[in-house]
Amino acid sequence: MKIKKTNETVKKYNKEIVERMKKAIHVKKDIDLTINSDIGRGDIAHFKSNVTETFYKRIVDFGIRHGVSVNWIVNGMGE
């Protein structure tokens, strides 16, 4: 049961990260995020539903490309 709760927590956290990325570039849909970044739609869907370390490199690249704090994207703190 603890593993299931941990997985659900990670999924929620990952979804929040994607939402902040969309907010940073003023889009509402995942597809619009993919159009404005080098992140594929399948990568976003996979990240939102799984634990994946490779997506974090894309978050850093996204932050650099769009001038957005990686800290804010990942944990919602700072700007």
What features would you describe in this structure?
This protein is mainly α and 79 residues long. 72% of the residues lie in helices and 0% in strands. It is built from five helices and no strands. Helix 1 runs antiparallel to helix 3. The longest helix is centred in the first third of the chain and has 23 residues, at 2-24. The relative contact order is 0.16.
Give the helices and strands as they follow along the chain. HHHHH
Amino- and carboxy-terminal Cα gap: 36 Å
Count of helix runs: 5
The helix content is over 70%
**Main sheet: strands, sense, barrel:** none
- Structural classification: mainly alpha
Instruction: Estimate the mean pLDDT confidence.
Output: 85
Summary?
The chain has 5 helices and no strands. The chain has helices at about 1-25, 30-35, 40-50, 55-65, 70-75.
Descriptive key words:
5 helices; mainly alpha
Walk me through the topology.
Elements: H1 2-24, H2 30-35, H3 41-49, H4 54-66, H5 70-75
